[in-house]
Amino acid sequence: MIPQFTVEKLKNRKKKVKKVIKSLVTLAVWFFVVGIIVFLSYFIYLQRTIPDPETLISRKVGESTKIYDSTGTVLLYDIHGEEKRTIIPWEDITSYVKWATLASEDSDFYKHRGVDFNGIARAFLKNLMEGGISQGGSTITQQLVKKALLGDERASTFRLVTRKIKEIILTVEIERKYSKDELFWMYLNQIPYGSSAYGIEAASKTFFDKPTKDLTLNEAVVLASLPKAPTFYSPYGSHVEELVVRKNHTLSRMLDLGHITQEEYDQAKKEEVVFQPSVDKITAPHFVIMVREYLVSKYGEDAVEKNGLKVITTLDTELQKIAEEAVTKYSEINKEKYKATNAALVAINPKNGEVVAMVGSSNYFDIENEGNFNVTTAKRQPGSAFKPFAYAVAFQKGYPDGTIVFDTKTEFNPNCKPNALEEKDEFGLDCYHPENYDGRFRGPVTLRNALAQSLNVPSVKTLYLAGVEDTIKLAESMGISTLQDRSRFGLSLVLGGAEVRPIDLVSAYGVFANDGIRNPWNFIRKIESGSGEILEEQKLKPERVIDSSATRLVTDVLSDNNARSSVFGYSSSLYIPSREVAAKTGTTQENRDAWVVGYSPNIAVGVWTGNNKNESMTREGAGISASGPMWKEFMVKALEKYPFEGFQRPDPVFSNKIMLSGQYFDPDHEVHNILHYINRSQPAGSIPSNPLEDTQYINWEWSVRNYFGLSLPNLPN
C-alpha cells in the first residue's frame, strides 16, 4: 500500500506539470498570433510596394567596380561602366531561347505557383549528399525577384534567411499578379548574361552580333547556360570548356523534355560555337578576368557590378607591356618556324609572391582561336622543368652535386628484363627505359652536369634516390597544387609525367630565388568598398619550405653556364652576361609543350609555347628554341627595373665516399652502379651489406657493366 504523503506528492507534481504545459501552450499561441500579425503586416506592406512590369525590368545599376594596377593609378578595367539592354517583345524571342532557359533553369515553371517546393527538396538532398552547394532550388520567378528587387550580394546567414523569406513572399504575390508569360518575358529581358549585357537581346548582340530571333538552337542554348554564373561561364573568360559542358547538358535536358528532336540535338552538339570578339577595353585581360572571377566568387555578382569596389592589384603595367610585346613578337616567329600558335608568360616577385605580369595567350581578343583561354592557370605537362625538385630533395638528403650517376641505357621496371627494348615485354608488362633528347648516353656524369644539361636517364635515377613521395611533398610545399592523385605518378614524374599550372611552377621556382622561403602567389593588394572601407588587404605569410643549403645548390647549378654549355652552348638564351640568372628548359613528348622557367633574386619568370589543342610543334621547337628567346628578351628588359643582386653561394659539399666523391672506380678497380655502394635513404651511411635487396639494383648494374663492356650479371628469370 502506497503511503498517503506519497500520493499527495504525486498529485501536486501532476498539477505543476499541467500548469507548466498550460503556460507553454498559452505562450506558443501568443507567439503564433503575434507571428501571424507580423507576417500579414509585412505581406500587406510588400503587396503595396510591388512595382509594375516596366519598373520591374528597369534595373538600376549602382557604382561600378574598378580594377587598378599596383600603383592604384592605372585603371585596368571598369565593371560595369554602362549596362547594355534592349527590351524586346515576347514574340521576338525565339522558342529556342524559351525552351533552353526552361530546361536550364526551371523546367516546371508553367506548373508551379512561383515556389517549387519539390525542387527545393531535391536541391537540398543533392547538396546534402555532395557536401556543398552544387544545386539551387530557385524558380525563374524567384530569380526575377532576386535580380530585379532584392539583389544577390553575399550576406550573413541571418540576412540570407530574412531575404529568402522576403523573396518567397514577393514571388507568391508577383505570381498572383502577373501571368506566366509576362513573368517569363520580364525574366528574359532582365537577367544578366555577363559582359554588361542585361536581357536576351543585349546578350545576343554582344556574343553573336545578331538579334534574338535569328539565334540558332546551339547559340540559344549557349546563352541560356550563362545566367547561372555569368562571370565563370563567360565566353571571354577561362572556362569556355565548362560552358560547352553546361550547354550540352542543357541540350540533353531539352531532348528529354521533348523540346527538340534527336536530329536537332545531334546537330547542335557537334556544331562549333563562334563568338564575337570582346569589345570591352581591358588592360592585361587574362589577369583582369582572373581578378574578376575572384571578386565574384568572394563578394557575388551583384556586389561586383554595383557596389563600387576599388581593387588595387599587384600588376606592374610596365612589366605587363614588356611581356605582351615579347609574347606577340615571338608568337609570330614561332608560328612560322615551329608551328606553335600560342604562348604564355607569367612573372612573379619571389620576395612577396606578387604576380607582376601575366599574358595568358598570344591574343586574348582572338576568340576564334581560344585566345581568351588563360594557359598560365591551366594544367600543362612541364617536361624537364620538373627536374629541379628531385635534385633539391637529393641535395637535402646529403647527395653532393659531384655525386656520380651513370647515363646509360637503363630499364627502370624491375619486372622487365634489363635489356628490354620495347615498351611492353613478352608478357605484356609496361617497361620503362627513357632516352635522352639527343639519343646519346654519356656514361658517368655528376648530378651537377646531369641537371644543368637536362639529361633524362640520370634524372630518373636521381628521382629514385630522392624518392618519388618526398619529391612530391617538396614540390607541393613549394606551391605545386596538382599532384594529389599519388597513384598516377612514378619515375616518369621527373620528365614531366604530371600536369602543373604554369603560375604554380613559376611560384615554386620563386622559392629557389628566395633562398628557400615561400611566398604564395597573390594578385590583390587591397580592396575598398564604395564608402572607403577596407574589405581586404594583402597579408604576406612567408614560410621556409626547403633548406637554404639545398636551394643555393640548385640555383648554383641552374646558373652554371659552363656546366650546361656542352648542350646549350655558351651564348644560349639562358645566359645574360650582365646579370645572375638561373633557368631550366622543359619539353614534353612529341614536342607539345616548350618551357623556359628561370629567375633572378628579384623576379621569377616562366614562358610556355605550344598549341591550345595540344598539337605537336616541329621537332626543332624544343624548350629553349621556342621559348628561350622570348624568356630572355623579357628578362633582360625586366631586370633593368631592378638593381643588381647576386645569388647567395652554397657552401662546398665534400665526401670521401665512392660515388659521392665524384669517383666511380672502387679500390679493386671495379665499376658498379651507385646502389652497390649507397643506401639511397642514407647516402652518407655504411655500404649496403646486400645491395640486391634494392629492386632497381640488377637493372642498374646490368646497364653499367654493359656500357663498359664488362661481364654481365645473370638476368632475372
From TrEMBL:
Keywords: Carboxypeptidase, Cell membrane, Cell shape, Cell wall biogenesis/degradation, Glycosyltransferase, Hydrolase, Membrane, Multifunctional enzyme, Peptidoglycan synthesis, Protease, Transferase, Transmembrane, Transmembrane helix. Its main location: membrane. Residues 78-254 form the Glycosyl transferase family domain. It comes from the Bacteria. GO terms for biological process: cell wall organization; peptidoglycan biosynthetic process; proteolysis; regulation of cell shape. It holds the Pfam family Transpeptidase. The keyword Transmembrane helix applies. GO terms for cellular component: outer membrane-bounded periplasmic space; plasma membrane. It is found in: Cell membrane. PANTHER family: BINDING PROTEIN TRANSPEPTIDASE, PUTATIVE-RELATED, PENICILLIN-BINDING PROTEIN 1B. This is Uncharacterized protein.
